Amino acid sequence: KDNIHRAAIVTEEAGELIQTAIxxxxxxxxxxxxxxxxxxxxMIEEATHTAAMGVRFLLEILGxxxxxxxx
Length: 71
Known about the structure:
Elements: H1 3-27, H2 33-70
Helix pairs in contact: 1-2
């Protein structure tokens, strides 16, 4: 995989996180506690996905760099 594709995956996850945050903020006044809790859980899930893909991106970049240094 190339770096552009790797970065796009991180960006896609970040976009999903932004969308869940927007959904939460736009609906906060009309929510009950159960819906609010579910939306917070969704934001946590998307933040976790974003962080995981960011770490994966870094590990792959570092792996590429180490492999190039060995060659």
